[in-house]
UniProtKB/TrEMBL annotation:
InterPro entries: EOBI/EOBII-like_plant, Homeodomain-like_sf, Myb_dom, SANT/Myb
Protein known as: Uncharacterized protein
GO molecular function: DNA-binding transcription factor activity; transcription cis-regulatory region binding
Subcellular location: Nucleus
GO BP terms in the entry: green leaf volatile biosynthetic process
Main location (coarse class): nucleus
UniProt lineage: Eukaryota, Viridiplantae, Streptophyta, Embryophyta, Tracheophyta
Keywords: DNA-binding, Nucleus, Repeat, Transcription, Transcription regulation
Family annotation (CDD domains): SANT (cd00167)
Region feature (Disordered): 1-31
Gene3D superfamilies, alphabetized: Homeodomain-like (1.10.10.60)
Domain Myb-like: 29-81, 82-132
GO CC annotation: nucleus
Amino acid sequence: MDHLQHVNFDLRREGSSNDNNKKGDEDNNMDFKRGSWTIEEDLTLMNHIALHGEGRWNSLARSAGLKRTGKSCRLRWLNYLRPDVRRGNITLEEQLLILELHSRWGNRWSKIAQHLPGRTDNEIKNYWRTRVQKHAKQLKCDVNSKQFKDTLRYLWMPRLVERIQASSNSNNQVNIQQSNDNIISNNNNIVPNMSFTQENYSSTTTTASSENSIGTQISDMSANCYTNYPINQGDYGESLISPTGYFQNGALDFRTVDIHDNQQNMSQLLLDDVSDNFWNIEDMLFLQQQLN
DNA sequence: AAATGGTGCAACCGCGCGCAG
DNA sequence: TCTGCGCGCGGTTGCACCATT
């Protein structure tokens, strides 16, 4: 039960308090339990939401008999217990989408998450901080610098597209419509018509590594998100598939790329770091090709 | 085998917005 | 208009796990 690995951690926060109780927040009230959620608490919350739906989190927490703040319940539900939440490795397609959308919107994690089915803003934020910022740090440049943004935009993202295309060529095509019919539930609050027990608990909190049909189908779907995935476009004025226009019709367009403008920067990056597992040997060769 | 350091990620925090009264 | 509450967002924290020494 991989997803429960952290259930008992963070006990240091148990019972701690803070005087800044403002705006009606109950977060710092000593009467509320803090720290890791137990299986029993999870089951209580899931069953209550299954019966009564979500929202009005403070009163929900009270009526469910949970000694938790509404905030804590909401967070637990949205980031962990929702049936459609998807955890596990961020796929290449999702990485590409995150980079694209972040280049457009910045740290608007929830907005970005709306376009990655099953992914939470917290998970995307964690991905950005642990992966992308790490690489910026290793490349000795600020994550918000033009240098690093250019690296993402002109080298990392096209490279991801190449990898996606390479992998999609070797995989069977997926019936997107079928996936769409069966899966698309992002942005909707799903209240399954079932109650949760300890026995079916694990199957309701899916992980990406599990071979359940939902995880597989979502993965299949995301594999095609740059070609024909009918994502909810929300407030996009133009195509979500190619927000910045680099990937029109699924094809790379380097017309706007003047790699030589960044030649000095990129050369310095190459000198600075060749050891990272993201910028592997293949990537280094690719970068050098672009610079020559 | 033990110690140490790095990483991933769940959970917490403060802040601000929107809405109802 | 003002006030309080509910909620969501982005940033931060710190433990468990894992790899390395």
